[in-house]
Design a protein that fits this description.
Structural class: alpha/beta
Strand content: 15-25%
Helix content: 40-55%
Radius of gyration: 23 Å
Length: 337
């Protein structure tokens, strides 16, 4: 029979109450005692009965996803997957909800996060640009007993849920170089904001491949659109007017709809090799019509499920299966949609 909590308490030389506090991550236990209990867990091969532990809580786990107020089709897809999980997760005593934060005002976003109470939220996955205000808000939430995890947008913390964005950018660079072949010219790189760590890492990966293996290509400085159609039209038209040798367009952000529409209106997109990120209704349609050549994708359903599993594991002071939580980089073309 597998070891019980009584066996664990005996092996660690502590009371059942202390074991309970350590297993549930409660306060009032010295670090030395926590280390002793964790050593005993490894020594006797203790595995917690998670179903019994959840029932003993006498209430469901409550996890929130803090996502931007503004966003496009990919964000809509993520929100739908969160709500879908909430419908099916209640059978496992897990509830999920969406909290909208002002991603353009880090102070307001931090205030929104600061109002969250551990009495109502057990853990939160946060999708927001990396700023000092957000980092401080995450730290204060953990101090209040709310588990946190960066979601899609990396905050340089352990347990980030999302693809390896540097590898994703390198993948886009390889596809761009292969599709262009021996053509010479410049590549336009577009994103909503360079404050986003995922865009910065994608650009690093993209540049690494292009600069090392494709001397016939040159990538222009990143253009920021801030998700605004008017600004997108302005920066894209200026880049095309200033460089008559543009051969490629790399859309680094998660929202490709506006750049695709603007590029089509400028009669530019059909003569360029275009690589975008995230599968949405717009990128699907653009792949089928030939307006873009490939999409680098991450499964939003997997993102949500992984975030919930990791948050629950944090609440229960246990590890997760790393291979299960690895988000794959998918390459989509018209033929494999």
């Amino acid at each position: 029979m597998r070891p019980t909590t009584k066996d664990l308490a005996k092996a660690a030389g502590v009371s059942l109450a202390t074991v309970d506090r350590v297993l549930n991550g409660r306060s009032g236990v010295r670090k030395k005692t926590i280390a002793t209990v964790n050593d005993a867990i490894k020594r006797i091969g203790f595995e917690r009965n998670q179903i019994a532990a959840t029932l003993a809580r006498q209430r469901a786990y409550r996890f929130a996803f803090a996502v931007p107020r503004s966003g496009g089709e990919f964000l809509d897809e993520i929100i739908e997957r969160i709500r879908e999980f909430d419908r099916v997760g209640r059978a496992e005593m897990i509830e999920t909800e969406v909290i909208r934060i002002d991603d353009r005002d880090p102070h307001e976003a931090a205030r929104t996060l600061g109002r969250l109470s551990p009495d109502k939220i057990d853990g939160i996955a946060i999708m927001a640009p990396e700023t000092p205000q957000i980092r401080d808000a995450l730290h204060r939430m953990r101090e209040r007993g709310i588990e946190t995890i960066p979601f899609v947008a990396n905050q340089q913390e352990d347990g980030f849920v999302g693809i390896d964005n540097r590898a994703a950018g390198a993948t886009a660079g390889r596809l761009m170089g292969r599709f262009l072949g021996q053509r010479q010219g410049t590549i336009i790189a577009l994103t909503e904001t360079t404050q986003s760590r995922d865009s910065l890492e994608r650009r690093l990966g993209f540049d690494g491949v292009i600069n090392s293996d494709y001397s016939n290509l040159r990538v222009l400085p990143t253009l920021e659109t801030h998700g605004d159609p008017g600004r997108t039209r302005h920066v894209l038209r200026n880049a095309l007017d200033a460089h008559d040798d543009v051969v490629g367009l790399y859309i680094m952000g998660a929202e490709a709809r506006t750049p695709i529409e603007v590029g089509g209106q400028l009669n530019a997109i059909n003569r360029l090799v275009v690589i975008a990120h995230e599968r949405t209704l717009s990128t699907e349609a653009a792949l089928r019509s030939g307006e873009i050549d490939a999409v680098i994708h991450q499964d939003p359903g997997h993102l949500v499920r992984s975030a919930v599993r990791i948050l629950r594991a944090k609440c229960e002071n246990r590890s997760t299966l790393a291979s299960q939580e690895r988000i794959r980089i998918e390459i989509l073309i018209a033929e494999n949609l």
